Every structure is written in C-alpha cells, then in structure tokens.
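User: My collaborator sent over this chain with a note saying "see what the structure looks like." That's all I know about it. Can you take a look?
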Amino acid sequence: MEDIILEIINQFGYFGIFLLIAVENIFPPIPSEVILTFGGFMTTFSSMDRWGVVVSATIGSVLGAVILYVFGRVLNIERLENFFGSKLGRILHLKRGDVRKAGKWFIKYGNKAVFLCRFIPIVRSLISIPAGISKMKFSKFLFLTIMGTFIWNVILIYLGRFAGEAWETIVFYIDFYSIIAIMILASTVFVAGVLFIKKRFIENNNKK
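Assistant: Without extra context I'll predict from the sequence alone. Here is the result:
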C-alpha cells in the first residue's frame, strides 16, 4: 500500500495528497503518517510548497470528516434507540436510555472530544460519527475539525520536511505512537465492556 501511496503523490502532487487524506479519513487503515511525512519530504526537492501540502491535506481531512458527520446525522439517535429497543437490543441488555446518556455525555464533552481525537489514530476519523449522531452544531464541528486536523497535518508535514530522506524514520515513530494509542484505547473499551457486562448481565441475573 505504501508504494501505491507514494506513486499517487508523485504523479498527482497536491491533488493526490488531498484525495488520499480524504479517503484515509473515511477508511482509517490507510496510513496518513506516510502521506503527510512523504509530502513534507517532497517539499525539499520538488516544486511542491509546504503550505500547499498543508492546505491540500487539511481540505482532504475536513472533507472526509464531513462525510462521516453526515453519516452520523443520517443514522441519528432515534434510529439507534429503535435498535436498542429491538429484540436483538434486549438480548444484548441494551436500553434506549443508554443512547440518551451517551448523547448527553457527548453534548457535555463533545468539543474537547472532536478536537483532541484528531491526534489519535483511527479515532480521529470515527469521532465524526458520534458528532453527527448527537447533532453537534455543524459550524462548531467544522471549526474544531479544521483546527485539530490543521495542527496534526502541520506537525507531520514539517517533521517529514525536517527529516528529509530519513522521513521513513518519522513514520516508524508515529507508528509506534499509534500502536500505544490503540492499545490504550482497546484497554479502555475492554474495561468498559467488562463493567457493562457485569452491570447488565451478572447483576441482573443475581436479582432474579
């Protein structure tokens, strides 16, 4: 995949970066660190300008985020509540109130979540969906997304430019950071899942 990414950037320049980053936001497994650091490296020997790369990457990031936000708006709380209230939802011990609780949590902490999650692999793409589901004000979502993705893009592009031909070293360290972040996230989800099962299944069975 890395060879394909580099070839697209080499052939299409700014548009290639824009397209790859937009797709990366919708399909997180595509490595944005490769796109951005290599784009930064290209500014050292090609006609590509550092700010041109930053702008292209940021526009692509925002486009991908908006698509997922719209998906979240279409999904909406009402449809989730219907699923939670369905036969399958009851089997899983899900409750309609869980959706509202999650919505209230996002309303309270959504601003920080949308901004800070832009610096966490995979989550920085997916955070747009709950923002849409909770009907976060679009102008606020757009502003926070632009700010977060702009900072992330500037950091990686300048690191790639600074590293030069050793740009792949930056990718290695970013990959290490990604692994740590994903492990922490997975551990958090696991603990939350265990607590949920304990509360909904074990405790409910004890009451019977």
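A starting point for your reply to your collaborator: Residues 2-207 form one domain.
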